[in-house]
Every structure is written in C-alpha cells, then in structure tokens.
What does this fold into?
Amino acid sequence: MLGLTIEPGSAAAELERRRHSPAQRVQHLLHTHPALSPAIILLLTCIAFTLLNDRFAAPAALSLLIQQTAIVAALAIGQTLIILTAGIDLSVGAIAVGSSMLAAMLAAEQGVPAPLALVVGVAAGLVAGSLNGLLVTRVGLPPFIVTLGTLSVFTAVVLIYTGGQSVPGADLPDVLTWTGTTFPLGDFRLTYGVVIVALMYLVVGWALSQTAWGRHVYAVGDDSDAARLAGIRVSRVLFSVYAVAGLIYGLAAWVLIGRAGAASPNAIADANLESITAVVIGGTSLFGGRGGILGTLLGALIVQSFAVGLSLAGVDDQYRLLAVGILVIAAVSVDQWIRRVRA
Amino acid sequence: MTTTQTPVLAARGLVKTFGRVVGLDGVDVDVYAGEVLAVIGDNGAGKSTLIKCLTGALIPDAGTITCDGREVTFRRPQDARAAGIETVYQTLAVAPALDVASNLYLGREERRPGPLGSVFRMLDKQGMRRRAEEAVRDLGISTIQNITQPVESLSGGQRQAVAVARAAAFGSRIVVLDEPTAALGVKESNQVLALIERLRENGLGVLLISHNMPHVWQVADRIHVQRLGRSAGVITPQSHTMAEGVAIMTGAAAA
It folds into this structure.
C-alpha cells in the first residue's frame, strides 16, 4: 500500500528514465566516487607529460615528484578534514612552520634532547589547532575569520620567537632531519618523510570511512543542524577536527624539516593556498560534507606533476600557475554540477 | 483509551519564554500508547516550542515531563531518544550526502563486535545496512529500493519515509512528527498517513503536529488545540467538526 510503484508515463517514470541519460550517469558516478575526476585528470596529466618528455615517467622524476608532494599532501589532510566540515584553514602554513621552528630551536639552541624537542614541536601544532577549534566552537566565529586571525598571530609569534633567523641543517639533530633520509624502493628513492605522510593518509582515511567519528565529520559538514538533531555533538566533532588537523600540521612540520634540511621561518609561504588547491582539485566540496582524502592526495599530485612536467618540458613556471588556476575553477564547477538537483 | 491508563508521555505546566516572548504558558499534554495525538494551532501558538520541549531540543523554564509516570529531564535530544522518544523534524534532519542506511543510524552508529569495534572503533557497516533494510521493509516502505543510495537522490516523500523509518526503528515509546505532510503531494501524504496508522497499530504513541486539518481529522484519536501559548482544550474528531476545531484554534469558540 505504501509502495510507490512507478507508473508508466508518470513523472516518476520520466525521472527514472532521465536518470539513465549519459550525463546523469556520469554525474551519479562522480557523485558516488568523488576521487574519480582527480584520478582521471592525474592520469591524463601523466600521459601528456610523458609524451612531451619521456623522462617524466622515469623513476628518478617520479621519486622527486613524490618527495616534493609530501609536505603539501600532508598539510592537505588537515585541510581536507576542516573543509569537509564546511570550514577553511588559512593558518596551515603558519602552524607547520611554528612547529618546525619550535622543535628546531629547542634542539639546536636550548639543548633540549632531540626526541623531546620533536614531541614538543608536534604538540605545539596540536595546541595551535585546538586554539582554532576553541575559537570556532566556543566563541562561534566563522572558520575563515578565526584562521585569518591566527595566521597573523602564529606568523608573528614565530618571527618574534626566532628573530627571523633560520636554524641551519648542521645545527639540527639527526632525529629532526631523519624524515629527509632516502631509501631505495625498487627503482624509486623515497624518504622516511614520504612514509610518514603515507601512514597519515592510511590512518585518517580509515578513520573517515570506518568510524562513527568519520561519519559525523561528513554529517556536520553536510548539514550541521540535521547532525545536531540526529544527536551528534556538533561542537565536539568540530573541535576534534581542528585539533587533529593541528596534530597533522605538527607531523608535517617534521617532514618539512627533513625535506628542507633546515628550519626556516620563511618556509612554505604558499602552503595555505597550495593545500586548499589540492583539496579542491581533489574533489572535496568547499561547502562541506562531500569528498575525501584520496582525492586530496591525487589533487596534490596533480599540482606537483604540473610543476615537474612543465619544467621537464622546458616550459616557463608561470604556465604551471596558469594551469593550476584553470584546474581549480574547473574542479569547483564540476562540484557545483554534481551538487545540482538530482532525481 | 481510558484515563486510568498511565500516559506514556505527559507534561504538566510547561513554560518556555524567549526573552520577553512567551512560547509556552503552562501547557499540559498526555500521550498514551497506541494513540495518535494531534497538536493543532495557529502560527506562533507554541506547537513547535511544545514538541521541542518534549523532545529535548529545548529545555522548558518550568513544568515537569513524565515518561510512564516517572519524571524525566531532557537536556539534549539524545536524552529524549534514550527515553524512547523519536522525532521527525519538519526539516527532516537527514544528511543529504550520506546514504539511507547511514542516515538511519546517524548519531547512534553501531560498532563491530570484538576488538575491531572496541579498540579500533570500527563501524559495523554491513550489520547496520542489513538492519536498516529490515526496518524499511517492516514498515512497508517499498519506495526506498536501495539502502545505499544517498538521501539527496530521493524525492521529498522518500526522504520523509527515511526520517519516519528512523524514528519508527528506534522509537520504543513515542514518535513525534512535525508537519510530516507539509511538503508532500496527495499520494505521498497518504503514504505517510498510512505509516502513522501503522505506528499506532504497533503500539507506539504518535504525536502529530500539523496544519492540515483533513489529515488531522483522518488519523488523530485526540486533538490538542494550542492557542497563544496555552492549551485551548483537547477534542476528538468525533466530538468536533473541522470547522469547530479551527474556531477553537482561532479563539472564535471555546472548547
């Protein structure tokens, strides 16, 4: 009696028929698999660059690509979590640089044992992320404003604390630069930093897809009122997301020190925009509730493959900027299209 | 229905104010098992405030709420849920991007047995999917064919069915429905009304808030008329006609 049987000629039948049109099918596919479009783009990018210069597909170039992607890819994990809740984090780079400088200064200049300095540095990321979380959930400020403010605050604190001075690699203990150590994997050369980032992706990806927390992150970003009425403690979920993101930035800082071989308060100046770019190209919606970190990883790889591929093809670096800009706009357009009324 | 029966949910002297605006001004309600109690009233009469107080979405300033005769305090929607009161909000409170099964279990996900669940907090996805399918089938909601499709791909009536299924699957005492047919067409409305009757047959108390008088007169056993933050009386579809009910609602007549 309650069954909505679809009668021929009815609107329901028409919708049913329309759903099977090719465009609708693509829309549905992209909707259920948000990482599909960045995967296709990455594949096309790699094919194109290999055709331009076959050194692109050589293990040496790909190893470099992976190592160069690691830091933005790591920061973009935290950024993805926050964007999934319909927020944004502009303080990504400032937190990561702050963590790296704190660990480096403690170890190199205060004589703190290296492992302890590392733990304090990573913990500083957690604290900074938690501060963002508190301002968003307790004070109720929009994430954009909160992180715009803390971007300046954290940057200023780091510059005041360090006097704008870098810590050269020679002064750094091995524990801090260990993440830059390379090891061979087949024909590839990877760093331990890359392994750490890969582990972070596995852990966060697992938490997002397999735990109630992950589902709540999506639900809060999708419709926070609905999530609250469904019994989810929205503030708690939001706070945890900012805190976890901070912890991720702290760990990324460790990878950053290894990659740079030194700690500089002026490192990764473009980290904020690069991490957001990776997330957006990766198919995560800026409106929250849709996307995932697999797409983000692909997005980070796409951006970096443009850098590597274009330089191998002998093209000016400005074209990378141009291409990335066009990709961002295209990715958001696709997202809007996917979100448009279905069924 | 006899008055000697203990109401499964009762409220006495509920007061709720918003600044200087009085939402509820001493309201009494009784809901019994196996009945549909409708709440009608003009805009601003306090219908929504009343059900929000009964479901933990708002905390009343004064008054008591009892469940099966025991006094309870609802500070959060979860408290009311724990007492067996499920609510279908007018806004439906579904997460559009999540699938039907995830929405049914939203906020009360079940974990896997053993260390996978207790240590690694892993969700029992298959189990939840299976039980969600059973819940949907038990309610005879054949309109939802695929439990794994995202809610946003469903029509308004189907979304309503998901929200009602969620309430029915977990509500052990009361299911509260706020304007369940407001956004629906004739056919879909009839499906929801049939669903309400099914909940009553299953022995649940149903609290139905509606502006649609024909629907109220069709399914309600008793009708609580709310007017200007107060109860203007409790009538039945037999004792009063729709026109008389509306007259009480607007203050043109007394109950």
